[in-house]
Every structure is written in C-alpha cells, then in structure tokens.
Amino acid sequence: MTQLSTLITEAWPDFGLIDSGGGRKLERYGRFRFIRPEPQAMWAPATPDWKADGEFIGGSEEDGGGRWQLKPQVPDRWELSRGPVRFWASNTPFRHLGFFPDMGGQWDWLASRIRPGDKVLNMFGYTGVGSLMAAQAGAQVTHVDASKKSVAAARENAGLSGLADAPVRWIIDDALKFLRREVRRGSKYHGLIFDPPKYGRGPDGEVWQLERDLPELVDLARQLLADDARFLVLTVYAIRMSALALHSLLAQATASRGGQIEVGDMAIREEARGLLLPTAIFARWSA
Ligand SMILES: C[S@@+](CC[C@H](N)C(=O)[O-])C[C@H]1O[C@@H](n2cnc3c(N)ncnc32)[C@H](O)[C@@H]1O
Fold first, then answer.
1. Mean of the per-residue pLDDT values for the chain?
2. What are the domain boundaries of the chain?
3. Which ligand 1 atom minimizes the distance to the CA of 125?
4. Ligand 1 geometric centre to CA of 49 (Å)
5. Whose CA is nearest to atom 6 of ligand 1?
6. At residue 278, does pLDDT exceed 90?
7. ∠ at Cα 171 (261, 279), nearest 5°?
8. Residue of 118, 165, 159 lying closest to 137 (CA atoms)
9. What residue's CA is closest to ligand 1, atom 27?
10. In the predicted model, is pLDDT for residue 251 greater than 70?
11. Exposure string (b/e) for 250-259, b if CB count within 10 Å is 16 or more?
12. pLDDT tens across 56-90, in order?
C-alpha cells in the first residue's frame, strides 16, 4: 500500500520556525533567534521587522558560501534538547545549526517502531541526533559517517544525553564501502535510516553522488533488512527529484515484503501563521 503524505514537524520547546517570507526564515534555537536565507519562502512574512541574534548572509543554496553575522551574546555553542535527547547547537559555516530540525517527524516515527534490542543502522548520521533517538527507544545502533569531526560531535551528544554507555557503534567510513562490507558479512538490521547529502566524500576521498549512487544504496539496503525488519527511512534534500521517484525505487526494493510505503514532502510548520515550509522529500517503508 502506498500513501502520499506531507510529514510536518511542529515547533517544540527548543526549536521553532517563527516566521518566514521574502526569501528568508526566522527560527528560534533555544534562547537565540536567527535569520537564514530560504529561497522557497516566496510569500510575505507575517511581521515586517524581525529581531534576531544573528543572520546568515549571502551565498546561494547551490554553491554554499556566505557567512554568519552574530551578536556578541551568541556563544560558540549551546545545549538544546528534543524530548530525552540533548545535543549541541552552533552556527556552522554550512548555514545550519549542527542538526536538522525537519527530521523531527522522522525521529518520532522511527522511535515509535523500535522494539528494545532492535538493530538500527543510521547512515550519514552526522551529529547523531537520529542515532540517539533510536538508542533512547532501546535500539542497538550502528552510526556511520565519513567525517571524523561529525562522529566526535555525535559521541559528545551521546554523553550530553546520558547515553555514553548505550549500545551504539560509532563508525567512520564511506557509506557504500561500509554497506557492501555489511552485505558480504551477512549483517541484518531491523531498521535503516538513510539521510544522504547531494554530494559528499568518504574518509579516503570516495565520491558520493546522490543520483548516481542512490540505486546501489537502496539495493544494499534491501539485502540488509532482516526478515522481521520494521522500517527503512530515506530522506533527500537540495536536489531536483520527486518523492515519486523515491517511491519507485523503494517499491522495487521491498516488493517481496509487502508492508507500506509512504512518500512525500517534509515540511516545518511556521508558528506565526501555520504556513508549511518544505525542506526535503522522503520515502519510508514499514512492515
Ligand atoms: C547533512 S548530513 C545528514 C544529516 C543527519 N542525518 C542528521 O539528521 O543530522 C550528511 C552527512 O553525510 C556525510 N557524508 C558525506 N559523504 C559521505 C560518504 N561518502 N560516506 C559516509 N558519509 C558521508 C557527511 O559527513 C555528513 O555528516
């Protein structure tokens, strides 16, 4: 069965999309407010003059670039939480704050599907919030990312969340290399989380290119799903691709299993008027 949906992440105590419009968005991250460019916010903002502790100026979404202009009260980093998971926020040169709040809806969904002792693999895990949500729900987690720095940040977030001793394997590796090795070893997982970038590099310079490599990624995922697997979540952003394409790919990989596939847009609900700001597309399968 296939369902077309919009996965909406609502504001929570430590995060909210306060207002949006005029090509920008105003968000709150704990006690600080920031303005960032947002090409899709083509409408007018709810209020004209935004007060913020900092703004990310310039650079296009495509080529990166640009920089933060921050008021002196903004520290290098500060603690945030979402439910039981705590993590550091900071103004990164990549225009984001060190985690992706629009993943909130995915974290809730997968946490609700995890049974204690399930094996969950989080690929492209970055600063680990998704891995910690899964660990918190009782999973044995394998967290993989190409960047040593990201994995170190993820481990620090585990400590902050009181999950330093949780059963999480922290792995620095290239995504496809790791997955191919896991398939050869006959490893199996109950849950898979894939949040690949458009373009990236493995620790030895291996090139990840979404359109070229996604089919192999999903085929490897198919081989890693345990007979009693519960879910597979795939999210894609910053790319010209429809959620329907993700649907076709996942439908093929899970054809023999039945279950459900849900695909669509991911969005954050603006607090001012409830407008939906799209952030990514997704496809997810569940048994
Ligand atoms: C933007 S993040 C994904 C967001 C993350 N899942 C989250 O929710 O916070 C993309 C991650 O992919 C990693 N990456 C890029 N190329 C990779 C590769 N070839 N193999 C493994 N990880 C890679 C980057 O280091 C980065 O941490």
1. 96
2. 2-7+100-286, 14-80
3. 6
4. 35
5. 125
6. yes
7. 40
8. 118
9. 126
10. yes
11. beebbeeeee
12. 998 765 556 899 999 999 999 999 999 999 999 99
Here the tokens at position 135 are 């660990």
Query: What is the 126 CA–ligand 1 centroid distance (Å)?
Result: 5
Residues lining ligand 1, Cβ inside 6 A: 99-100, 103, 124-127, 129-130, 145-147, 150, 174-175, 195, 197, 200-202, 206, 208
Q: Which residue out of 80, 97, 126 has the highest number of ligand 1 atoms within 8 Å of its CB and is therefore the one to mutate?
A: 126
C-alpha–C-alpha distance, residues 29 and 42, integer Å: 23
User: Could you give the angle at the alpha carbon of 215 between the alpha carbons of 210 and 218, nearest 5°?
Assistant: 105
> Which of 61, 97, 132, 145 to mutate to test ligand 1, by most ligand atoms within 8 A of the CB atom?
145
Ligand 1 geometric centre to CA of 17 (Å):
24
**Tens-place pLDDT, residues 24-40:** 999 999 999 999 999 99
The torsion defined by the Cα of 73, 29, 96 and 53, in degrees rounded to 10, comes to: -30
The mean per-residue pLDDT over the stretch 210-221 comes to 97
Q: Which CATH superfamily is domain 14-80 in?
A: Golgi alpha-mannosidase II (2.60.40.1180)
CATH number of 2-7+100-286: 3.40.50.150
> Which residue's structure tokens are 């409408």?
43
Span 173-197, average pLDDT: 98
Does residue 45 register a pLDDT over 60?
yes
Neighbours of 73 (CB within 10 A): 9
Query: Which of 112-121, 167-176, 206-215, 234-243 has the lowest average pLDDT?
Result: 234-243
Q: What is the number of helices (H) and of strands (E) in the chain?
A: 6, 17
